[in-house]
TrEMBL record:
It comes from the Bacteria. This is Polysaccharide pyruvyl transferase family protein. Keywords: Transferase. Residues 8-293 form the Polysaccharide pyruvyl transferase domain. The keyword Transferase applies. GO terms for molecular function: transferase activity.
Length: 375
């Protein structure tokens, strides 16, 4: 039970990686991705893609969306409908109960109660009879202090019925600990766990000759910051953008497979996306990540959490309160990475990634065996 339908690289990649990791861990068990979605959100998403007034409207966005659907479709089960509308909680629960013997809440932010509220089926219903587990699940942006006592009881009742819980970040670990006071293990996102995620035949598109201009990739939601990066460095570097088109940049359209491999082709990557950060880590790219959402001024963000695990918080900038000094410090760091040798080097990050992969592999095996013993 994870997200599979969003117009987002991270969504389809984490779903793909989750299925691959679990299937390779226990080849004798049939794992399926359940194609869940929220009807109202699905309609808004499609209207947004087709809206010519949307800044990101265009053929490229439509092609991106189609590429993501093609990428994940082979892993989705053949069922009567293309997707399960979880707004209808009873029908969705009936579908799960009739089709499956056990249940795993997948990775990504399925525990944040976005769009569906306290009736979210991603907190698996108690009436489902089989064993339950969570795999690198996140409750990012869910502030437990805002929950009503009755809502806390709903979440608590669901979590108490899980046989094994793993989470993706410290914020979610704190949430679970506060609700049910049970030991919870953190593991990294499946897009970092699964090694052969990208294209097998990928080759560097361009040699990094000293004589050419540096190439900087900007994957940024915040258009104001994207513009400042282009203004500051565009005269001396070639600035590219992906997923969200930025002014005064060369926009590149990538399939999910190309997205995984692309980051290592640039001299520096700048991103405020979690999975943009993950792709930077796994590719060995020089990169800078930042947060601007005010929520992350109150608790640790998912980006800061993964960079802490990789021991590279020097790549992270907290812009939840933007000041000229903080922004200038980040721009200086981007300039340093793009125009000069990286003082940290990718070896440290790679070693930490391998350590976290080993930890995740051991925990995943234990989780699967726990479920198997209770089927």
């Amino acid at each position: 039970m994870t997200l599979t339908q969003s117009e987002n690289y991270g969504t389809v990649l984490q779903a793909y990686a989750t299925h691959k990791v679990l299937s390779e861990c226990a080849p004798d068990i049939d794992f399926e991705l359940v194609p869940t979605d929220v009807g109202a959100v699905r309609r808004r998403r499609l209207m947004s893609i087709a809206n010519p007034r949307n800044p990101s409207f265009g053929v490229s966005r439509v092609r991106n969306f189609a590429a993501m659907r093609r990428y994940i479709k082979p892993l989705l089960p053949q069922i009567d409908s293309r997707w399960i509308n979880i707004e209808d909680r009873e029908s969705a629960t009936d579908f799960l109960e009739k089709r499956y013997d056990g249940y795993i809440t997948g990775s990504d932010e399925v525990w944040n109660l976005a769009h569906i509220g306290i009736d979210s089926i991603y907190y698996l219903p108690n009436r489902l009879p089989g064993p339950k587990a969570s795999f690198a699940t996140s409750a990012n942006r869910l502030d437990i202090s805002t929950l009503k006592p009755a809502d806390r009881d709903v979440l608590k009742s669901s979590l108490e019925d899980y046989s094994y819980i793993t989470v993706r970040d410290a914020t979610t670990r704190t949430l679970v600990d506060e609700l049910i006071a049970r030991p919870v293990v953190e593991i990294i996102d499946p897009t970092l766990q699964y090694r052969p995620l990208g294209s097998v035949d990928h080759a560097r598109k361009e040699s990094k000759a000293v004589s050419r201009r540096p190439r900087i990739l900007v994957m940024v939601k915040n258009r104001g910051i994207g513009s400042q990066i282009a203004e500051r460095l565009g005269g001396r570097a070639d600035i590219y953008s992906c997923f969200t088109r930025q002014d005064n940049t060369r926009f590149i359209r990538l399939t999910p497979q190309e997205f995984v491999d692309a980051f290592g082709d640039f001299d520096c990557v700048v991103t405020d996306f979690f999975h943009g950060t993950c792709m930077s880590i796994r590719s060995g790219a020089r990169f800078v990540s930042f947060d601007t959402e005010s929520t992350y001024g109150r608790y640790e963000s998912k980006i800061k959490n993964i960079l802490g695990k990789m021991d590279c918080l020097d790549r992270y900038f907290d812009l939840t309160t933007i000041s000229p000094e903080r922004l200038n410090a980040m721009l200086n760091r981007i300039e340093q990475l793009a125009f000069a040798p990286d003082p940290l080097g990718s070896e440290v990050i790679e070693a930490n990634l391998e350590r976290e992969r080993g930890h995740a592999t051991a925990i995943t095996k234990e989780m699967v065996e726990t479920l198997r013993s209770r089927l």
